[in-house]
Write a structure and sequence with these properties.
Strand content: 5-15%
Number of helices: 2
Distance between the termini: 15 Å
Shape: globular
Helix content: 25-40%
Order of helices and strands: HEHE
Length: about 100
């Protein structure tokens, strides 16, 4: 899911938000660290999501629009969380630089 998945996932998260609005029920979505930019330090789960969306097609950062949308559903009474999954969770190889833009 390098980009195209975010476009498909966003309307699904919005539909979940509509169904759960005002209920106080939880919504948990998977996110990623995305592109941290040049922070001069390792990225952590405490770092906010950078802007994402179609402008970042082909990069992990494209998924940040899903993360910020899910978190934003809290304003509508949805207990929303994002579980950030490391860019490389099951490999000892390094991700191509293009994935980190």
């Amino acid at each position: 899911m390098r980009g195209g998945g975010a476009a498909a996932e966003l309307p699904i998260m919005l539909a979940y938000g509509e169904a759960l609005a005002g209920t106080g029920k939880p919504l948990v979505a998977a996110g990623s660290i995305g592109s941290p930019g040049d922070l001069g330090r390792p990225v952590t789960e405490d770092d906010p999501a950078l802007p994402g969306g179609a402008a970042y097609q082909g990069a992990l950062r494209v998924r940040n629009v899903v993360e910020t949308t899910v978190i934003g559903l809290a304003d509508r009474g949805v207990r929303s969380w994002v579980v950030r999954i490391a860019n490389i969770a099951h490999s000892t190889t390094v991700a191509p630089v293009s994935w980190c833009n």
